[in-house]
Write a structure and sequence with these properties.
183 residues; 15 strands; mainly beta; single chain
Amino acid sequence: MKKVILSSFLFFLISSISYSQSKLPECKPTDKVLYHNCYGKKIYGRNGEYYEAEFKNNLPVGEIKYPDGEKYIGGWKNDKPHGKGTYTFANGSKQVGTFKNGLLEGDGKSFGSNGKILFDGKYQDGTPNGWGTLYDDEGGNYKSKFKNGLPDGVGLETTSDGQKIVREWKDGKLVEGRKKSRE
């Protein structure tokens, strides 16, 4: 019984803290579930998935927070990121660019949890597809075409010490005999 009371108290306390982060009143669901000028949770999935946000005209505005620590700021459509925005994952890594149905689409950038850029280029359905630059931790990069998130085609690698190497990849695998170094 003590666990039930303690769990209920903690849920209430956490909910109160979340709602107190906004200056708007708590959203009160009605039969129409229209949220206007309030702060609250909106359930959007079959399994009880929800997000917290400030709402105006039944649309979230500003920062949208998920219970797992992820957050999103940007355009929104059908309960998903849509349009220009920034999605921050629970580990601190980020995706910045144009979203379509919750996934990066077109020009976008991915950053690691340390803030360093990982990829800058074209995305399709949330995956690098098209021209882009892949960055490594040592300061080097690889400019090429990508297909399904993997290098595919001839590209230029620049090492951290400035050496430039032409490489050819097919479906993410280096094609042997195609390495050429140039100064």
